[in-house]
Amino acid sequence: SMQCFPSLVLALSSLLGALALLQLSLYLRVPSRYGKHEERLCRPQGRLPARCAWFVQELPSFLVPALLLALRSPPRLEPLGCRLLCCLFCWHYFYRTFIYPFFTRGRPFPLQLLFFGTLFCIYNGFLQGYYLIYCAEYPNDWCTDIRFTSGLLLFLLGMGINIHSDLLLRQLRKPGEVTYKIPQGGLFTYVSGANYFGEIVEWFGFAIATWSLPAFAFAFFTLCCIGPRAYHHHRYYLKTFTDYPKSRKALIPFVF
């Protein structure tokens, strides 16, 4: 049976933090080239339909922790806090794998980005799952700890914002349309990247509830990965639409 190696958790978490800084340095000035930021003359080959791409990319984040749990003998079901935290992670990726892709109306996705995204989901799925299933130790009353309860509330709030913002973005396009329009409603009233803001809040909530290095490293990675994308989306909207609301911020209401 697999054992817990704290040094492995530390090494993988540290590498995740380094990858976060690399993402920030690569994409702070120049956006990642997909969606509204792709090159105009990009060749159509080397792409997968958005629905298929999202499914393939996100699936490992759900399957890897599930496989790690199945491999543990005897199965670890206690304490309750540990079980709930693992369920939160899998719940997010169940939605991202089996629900979100079948409603998205995004453009075809570059295979190169899909490859790296899938690798990341395998890596992070293993790190978070391995820590929670084999290493994490929580007291029996962790579910009533202020870190767990406040983190859980933030996670649920962030997930709600993320799902609602995705729904508003989907409604901007009719089936078959690929043009971009100004998002309206919800948190989009205040920020251009409402969907990204929701996901960042979600994973920082998870990190607080888990109170672990792997979860904080992942939350930091999320911020460094999609934070710059929200910033570039904001600049795109300002440049493309003359009537874009000037009061909107890029990512965080009333700040940026």
TrEMBL record:
InterPro entries: 3-oxo-5-alpha-steroid_4-DH (IPR016636), 3-oxo-5_a-steroid_4-DH_C (IPR001104), SRD5A/TECR (IPR039357). It is found in: Endoplasmic reticulum membrane; Microsome membrane. One of its GO terms (cellular component) is endoplasmic reticulum membrane. Residues 108-256 form the 3-oxo-5-alpha-steroid 4-dehydrogenase C-terminal domain. Keywords: Differentiation, Endoplasmic reticulum, Lipid metabolism, Membrane, Microsome, NADP, Oxidoreductase, Sexual differentiation, Transmembrane, Transmembrane helix. GO terms for molecular function: 3-oxo-5-alpha-steroid 4-dehydrogenase (NADP+) activity. One of its GO terms (biological process) is androgen biosynthetic process. Its EC number is 1.3.1.22. It is a multi-pass membrane protein. Pfam families: Steroid_dh. Its main location: endoplasmic reticulum. The chain crosses the membrane at residues 109-134, 146-165, 203-226. The keyword DNA-binding does not apply. It catalyses: 17beta-hydroxy-5alpha-androstan-3-one + NADP(+) = testosterone + NADPH + H(+); a 3-oxo-5alpha-steroid + NADP(+) = a 3-oxo-Delta(4)-steroid + NADPH + H(+); 5alpha-pregnane-3,20-dione + NADP(+) = progesterone + NADPH + H(+). It comes from the Eukaryota. Belongs to the steroid 5-alpha reductase family. Converts testosterone (T) into 5-alpha-dihydrotestosterone (DHT) and progesterone or corticosterone into their corresponding 5-alpha-3-oxosteroids. It plays a central role in sexual differentiation and androgen physiology. This is 3-oxo-5-alpha-steroid 4-dehydrogenase 2.
